[in-house]
TrEMBL record:
It is a multi-pass membrane protein. Keywords: Ion channel, Ion transport, Membrane, Transmembrane, Transmembrane helix, Transport. The keyword Membrane applies. It comes from the Bacteria. It comes from Parazoarcus communis. The chain crosses the membrane at residues 27-47, 53-75, 87-111. The keyword Nucleus does not apply. This is Potassium channel protein. Residues 134-256 form the RCK N-terminal domain. The lineage of its organism: Bacteria, Pseudomonadati, Pseudomonadota, Betaproteobacteria, Rhodocyclales.
Amino acid sequence: MHEPPFEPLARHHSVFFLIMRRLRLPLILLISIVAITVLGLTLAPGIDVDGRPHYLSFFHALYFASYTATTIGFGEIPYAFSDQQRLWVLVCIYLSVVGWAYTLGTVFAILSDRNLQQAIATQRFVRAVQHLGEPFYLICGYGETGRLICHALDRLGYRSVVIEREESKVGEIDLHSYAADVPFLTADASNPETLRYAGLTHESCIGVIALTNDDSANLAIAIAARLLAPRLPVMARAEALETTANMASFGTPHIINPFEKFGDTLALALHAPAAWQLLGWLTGLPGTTVERHREPPRGAWVLCGHGRFGKLMVDAMDSEAVPVTIIDRQPPDDATHRWVQGDGTGAVALLEAGIKDAVGIVAGTSSDVDNLSIAVTARELNKNLFVILRQNHYANRALYGAFESDITVVPSEIIAHECLAILSTPLLAPFLDEIRSRDEEWCAWLLDRMTRRLGWTVPDVWSERINLSRAPALYRRLMRGETITIDQLLRSHGNRNEFLACEVLYLVRDDDDDLVIPAANTAVRPGDELLLAGRPGARGRFGFNIANEHSLNYILTGTDLPGGWIWEKLAQRKKQPSNRHLP
């Protein structure tokens, strides 16, 4: 589909037109003063060296007026002025001083004008985006989530372009140590014109991430991307169910609702704890050690805060038939649950809700201080409570770290992890969906197998496609009709009797014959895409196996190929039969 090219900056963003419009009156005043000065000088009589009457020409008058208006004092030409000329020049000097003072004052006012600064910043931003030759993501919203994603993309080697409405947040970009410059603009990202300036239709733009804290703005961004750049993948944040349904109606590929995502996770933890542990191990921060969490117990629960987050938590518990008592300042809409009026920060409401007999509590209000107060009070009343804490602001992580909750729900981290999983490893999402659909016994078996093999440190998760660009050595052998199995590819090119510290989790084929945890003797085909998990360093070794002919030949046959032209010639001579005969 043909995409419209970048359009020049609109007239109201043009620095030249903005300056000329503001300087119109001062310039007219200066021109008028110079014109009056020149006219007066040509009419005022003077005398030459011989005492005869003399009048200045227009050229001499303009020359004198030009340097007098700017410097005041340069000499009288071509002859000394008469008293009439000096009187006229005196009047013109004061006029020019007033005119220049007014003009300079207007110039200084323009330089400090926010509209001009915004126009200059917009033009600089548009030029920076137009000159981007590397793939980049358009990030709308630079809050806590946007900052996490920008840092992650920077580590992955991708460029970012940022649009943020609040100037205070945009100003933080220069303070962060990014490897590459991040073009940014203070503007409303829901405006299609702004999105065009930010490179929505740029040939190097490879994705749009809508992360503003306004669902309507994210919806507008998703619609604009769908219409102006339908080829681009869009990831959009949505916290209201109505917004989620609206985005899904016109085909937004990735809609991320952090509360709904955690609600599904909580339901999974109650239904299949091993699957929950497995998902936490796969989606954690690579390199960190994951401890086996205490599983959410079944029994009576207490929930504080029946807003958007609280309603989804109640739905998750209802789906697993877990009884819950709601504490909220306003009674809930439905009467199917027991509820207590209050905020939960005091012991009275918690005791009335039965906190001493409860097995768990969800502190899910929109206030971090209230959530911590609820958790501390509840833990004092019941030491064995399973505590789920909602953290609204990432800046409060030190406070939340001091309180040892069983689960801390950070919406910004949930969104960031989901976006990065989609961006860096697209195969991970369908594999996680497959895990959610399996039973507890299968998930427990897989968790035990993976942790025995790789330990409890969060593994590197990546995907490899078997094609000529990513796996040239393997692809050529497969195209020649050779049969190569997963077991062979996972051997070490240092010692083929040893295996790499990685596992194939998922195999996707063009004919929809996808395999979850494929068997070791599964033969790979050209075009297959593999999802792997392994220890640090395994990714590079596996990539070397499938890309390098010498390494691949060794793990398949156990023999080393000659490493250069000379050695290849010598090897060929050794293979040739000898023509010499003994006498």
